[in-house]
Amino acid sequence: MRIFSLPRHCVFILFSSLLISCPAFSADTAALLATADASRVDKLVAKCDRCHGDGGISDDSEIPHLVAQQASYLLKQLQHFKAGERDGGRMNKMIRKLDDQQLADLAVHFAAQELPGQGVSTATTPALVSSGDQGRGIEACASCHGDDGRGKQDKYDAPALAGMPLTYFATSIQSFADGSRQSDVEGVMGKVARALTDAEIQALASYYLAHGGRNPL
Ligand code: HEC
Ligand code: HEC
């Protein structure tokens, strides 16, 4: 199954049954995704659509799409909301009563759907995306989020950004910068976010939005 394309070292850890976890991707996470069954959450999904848009494709600039996002990333965020480690407002309440397997079922359901293209981008790639800014300690966005903004399954499990709604993009960077969101492994995103200016955040948000849709990873 495609969603089960784990980083190689995690697969090793999983199958060698060692109790060492990967920073972003524990053996528990892998096991939950491996046994996930999207057909079990058909009814629950309708509730998500109320805020996240039909089929998990958002039409609200403040709310993220759920489709074509990495299953491991989605599950990780749902677990943070449930544990109260990430403040998602009404989101936290929404999933309070769901167990970990249901959260994994939801993650697998949305990860497998496509985000339709929103126009072909003619924007040139900003330097911050392709090479970062060494002088200010900013690593290239693409090194973690992938060259095409589709996200990357590695020790950080950075999410897909292509097609992300503008306001959500900017407010999530601000929440890493002011420390209200600390769900990032090793604080990697906080470090980047604190170094960006408001104008850069807006430019990056526009670039990724114009980057169009994405297929499931
Ligand atoms: C009442 C509205 C509402 C409902 C219903 C809702 N969500 Fe959300 N969700 C939000 C908001 C708002 C955010 C953004 C939170 C933030 O700003 O950090 C969010 C964020 C998320 C994220 C994080 C995405 C990311 O890119 O980090 C996931 C995953 C998620 N929701 C999954 C779900 C699922 C699955 C359901 C259905 C079981 C659901 N949501 C139902 C409002 C809602
Ligand atoms: C060293 C790795 C790394 C680099 C470099 C990086 N990011 Fe991230 N980013 C992450 C991780 C990991 C997360 C998810 C953290 C979590 O689990 O909540 C994230 C989350 C985000 C989010 C929130 C997405 C969502 O769905 O909530 C945005 C927006 C974002 N990054 C934009 C950027 C931009 C723009 C750059 C370049 C200026 C950048 N990132 C550079 C690792 C990185």
Topology (SSEs and partners):
Blueprint: H1 8-15, H2 27-34, H3 42-52, H4 71-82, H5 90-94, H6 100-111, H7 127-130, H8 141-145, H9 166-177, H10 188-195, H11 198-210
Helix pairs in contact: 4-6, 9-10, 9-11
The structure holds heme C (HEC) (2 copies).
One heme C binds at residues 64, 76, 128, 138-139, 141, 143-145, 156-159, 161, 169, 172-173, 183-185, 188-189, 192, 204.
Entry summary:
This protein has 217 residues and is mostly helical.
Task: Characterise the protein shown here.
The protein has eleven helices and no strands. The model is unreliable at 1-23 (pLDDT under 50). α4 (71-82) runs antiparallel to α6, α9 packs across α10 (188-195) and α9 crosses α11 (198-210). It folds into two domains: 8-111, Cytochrome c-like domain (Cytochrome Bc1 Complex, Chain D, domain 2), CATH 1.10.760.10; 127-211, Orthogonal Bundle (Cytochrome Bc1 Complex, Chain D, domain 2), CATH 1.10.760.10. It is an all-alpha fold. Bound molecules: heme C (2 copies).
Radius of gyration: 17 Å
Count of individual beta strands: 0
Strand content: under 5%
Number of domains: 2
How many strands, what sense, and barrel or not for the largest sheet? none
What share of the residues lie within helices?
40-55%
Looking at CATH, the homologous superfamily of the largest domain is Cytochrome c-like domain
Descriptive key words:
single chain; 217 residues; Cytochrome Bc1 Complex, Chain D, domain 2; mainly alpha; binds heme C
